[in-house]
Design brief:
heterodimer; A: about 190 residues; Rossmann fold; four-stranded mixed sheet; about 25% helix; B: TIM Barrel; eight-stranded parallel β-barrel; about 25% strand
Chain lengths: ~190, ~250
């Protein structure tokens, strides 16, 4: 199986690479369009600022490529948020797979939402670290509660996206990634 | 509900784990990667590695160690010690660290906090503060507790938050190594001063101390070293104890 991690300089791709290697898959970290198009499965990671990330995607022409992908794509953290239509972070137009606006948490509790929280839908603990969130919507497959009930996971056709970091979520995270590479993720 | 975090801290010197009492008398406590793996399996929520002898020539040893840790563990980890530039941060994050902690260098140049936050995001930036109470005032110390400043703990934490720190790791030098409990009054005040997570450090001796810092101290996470290294408290036992006492922890 050919697994590609889209490399656009956004955050800690090394952890993801190690996480897949522990599962026996050696992912290719690349921004090459041909390599991405020929992959069986694709990881769209991201840590950092939405505006800066979108600018890099545009420079590399990946903003056009990503929405056209037909293989299973897994967006993680900022990657999830960038798959939405718009982000309040830097008032950024994003990729628009999901017709949602990414919002900033109201500071009723500490922000960023940092640490392990439980998702409802599968009652598992995952590691989160984010200040912006995708609101709960009809494509939400897992929710999490912090300040408000938000989307921990969403899915539309071949696009899967999670707010948590499966690569940093211990055994439950590893099982999640295993499911994605072995079948589809729910 | 967001879980309270238990964070073993591994002080690294020349590639080995050490822990001193009151910042002195270093004792050897094992291979960091073996300990890291063990802690991750036992249910630690995160790990912190502080390179207490980080000098320029040791930097490469640290990077190699960070790579080994990242390859072997699947929970978040923070690396600190001697970080003084955006370039240092870049190298550590590229090697697989999830977060870095800044201490003395941030006091000397507070713009470093904003520079790092802008480039890599607040989520990867922990502001570590060592402070000591004297006559009711908490002063910030630098260089691993060797150099006193006039800086006030609470004002400094607030400034750190405004400049983009994502978490505060506060070590009470009065409590560190004593095993008499965390500095809960100061921690509570700190938690009410900033709106980012506060990690309690210094003073853990019993399971009750963790309960106290999560309740009285309003801490979001608690860090300890020797009680875990010397197997005085097992992380699994600590978490089930906290769970039974009604604290939300990841089991």
């Amino acid at each position: 199986m050919k697994l590609v991690i889209i490399n656009y300089g956004a955050g800690n791709t090394q952890s993801l690479k190690y996480a897949f290697q522990r599962l026996g898959v050696n992912p290719l970290l690349t921004d090459d369009k041909e390599e991405i198009l020929s992959a069986d499965k694709i990881i769209f990671p991201g840590v950092g600022h939405a505006k800066a990330a979108m600018n890099v995607l545009k420079e590399k022409g990946l903003d056009v490529l990503i929405p056209q992908l037909k293989q299973p794509v897994l967006g993680i953290c900022l990657g999830m948020q960038l798959l939405c239509k718009f982000s309040e972070e830097g008032n950024t137009e994003c990729l628009g797979i999901f017709d949602e606006t990414v919002k900033l948490f109201e500071p009723k509790l500490k922000v960023p939402h940092t640490g392990w929280n439980k998702t409802s839908g599968n009652e598992s603990w995952y590691y989160f670290v984010h200040s912006y969130y995708v609101p709960k919507n009809e494509l939400t497959t897992l929710t999490c509660n912090y300040i408000t009930e938000f989307s921990a996971a969403i899915q539309k056709n071949n696009f899967y996206a999670v707010q948590f970091h499966p690569e940093k979520s211990g055994k439950t995270g590893a099982e999640f990634l295993k499911k994605f590479i072995e079948q589809e993720c729910k | 509900m967001l879980a309270k975090r238990i964070i073993p801290c591994l002080d690294i010197k020349d590639g080995r784990t050490v822990k001193g009492v009151n910042f002195e008398n270093l004792r050897d406590a094992g291979d960091p990667v073996e300990l890291a793996k063990l802690y991750a399996e036992e249910g630690a929520d995160e790990l912190v590695f502080l390179d207490i002898t980080a000098t320029h020539e040791k930097r490469k040893t640290l990077v190699a160690l960070v790579e080994r840790i990242a390859a072997n563990i699947n929970i978040p980890f923070t690396v600190g010690g001697g970080i003084s530039s955006v370039e240092d941060v870049y190298v550590l994050l590229q090697s697989g660290a999830d977060k870095i902690s800044l201490n003395s260098a941030a006091v000397r140049n507070s713009k470093l906090i904003s520079d790092i936050a802008e480039k890599f995001g607040s989520q990867c930036l922990v502001l570590a503060i060592d402070a000591k109470e004297k006559d009711g005032k908490w002063n910030v110390f630098l260089n691993g507790g060797r150099l006193e400043t006039e800086l006030d703990l609470f004002e400094w934490a607030k400034e750190g938050e405004q400049r983009g720190a994502g978490e505060i790791l506060f070590t009470s030098m009065n409590h560190d190594g004593t095993k008499n409990g965390f500095a809960n009054n100061a921690l509570k005040q700190l938690s009410e001063t900033v709106n980012i997570p506060v990690i309690a450090s210094g003073g853990a001796g019993t399971m009750q101390h963790f309960y106290d810092t999560f309740t009285e101290g309003k801490s979001d996470a608690a860090l300890a070293a020797s009680i875990f290294h010397f197997k005085e408290i097992a992380i699994r036992d600590l978490k089930s104890y906290l769970h039974q006492k009604g604290i939300t922890v990841r089991l």
